[in-house]
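Input record (Table S2, row 221):
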Amino acid sequence: MGNIVSPSILSADFANLQTEIERTENYGAKWCHIDVMDGHFVPNITIGAPVVKSLKNAVKSKLDVHLMIENPDIYIPDFIKAGADIITFHIEACKAPGVAEKCIKMIKEAGIIAGISIKPKTPVSDIEKYISLLDMVLVMTVEPGFSGQKFMEDAAQKINDVQKIAKNKGKQNFIIQVDGGINAETAKICTSFGANCFVAGNYVYKNPDIKGAIQSLLQVY
Ligand code: DX5
Ligand code: ZN
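Output record (zinc ion complex):
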C-alpha cells in the first residue's frame, strides 16, 4: 500500500476551497484534511459540517475530518450526514466513560473510516484498547490548534508503539496518520517509525512547488 497524502485546507485559501483542493488532486493527493476546531478543545475556531457538505459535491478527494472539539459524540452524526469519508476524534475529548466506544460505533456503522487522535503528550496506552476497533490512529506531532508549527520528533516516536500494537492485534492495512509540521524531511522520520498517511498544511499549500511537495510525501523512503 502506498502512502496517503492528506493536504490540510487550514493552510489553503478559504475563499477558493474547490480550486485549492483540485490543485492537490491534480498531483496525486487522494484525501483532503479538514480541521474542525471549536474554540474549547483548542483555542481556535475554524469550520463545521456545512463546509464538509459543500465540499462533498465539489471535490473528488476523500473528506478526512479531524475533529478537535469537545463532545465529539454529539457532533459526529452531523459530519456523517455531511458526507465525511474519514472521521477522527481526540481521546482527550472523551471524558465520560463509554464516549470513545460510542463515537467509534457511530462512525463504523456509517461505513466510513474511524480514527482516534492523540496529542503529543498523550501516551499510546490511553488508546491501546480501542485499536482493534479502529481503522486509523492519528499521532499529532504538534499541539493541535494551529498550522505552521514545528514538528516534535519525540511525539512521532509513538508511531512505533501504535504500529506494534496494530500488528499484534492482527490489523490489516492499518492507517497511521501523522499531523503537524510535516514536510519531506519529517515525513522520512515518521516513515521510519511506521507512518503511512501524511497530513500537511503549510508544506503543501504554501509551497511554490505544490507538485513537488505532494510527490515528496507520496514517495518517502
Ligand atoms: C493542527 C492541525 C493540522 C494543521 C497542520 O492543529 O491539526 O492539520 O493544519 O498544519 P502544518 O502541516 O502546517 O503543521
Ligand atoms: Zn489536523
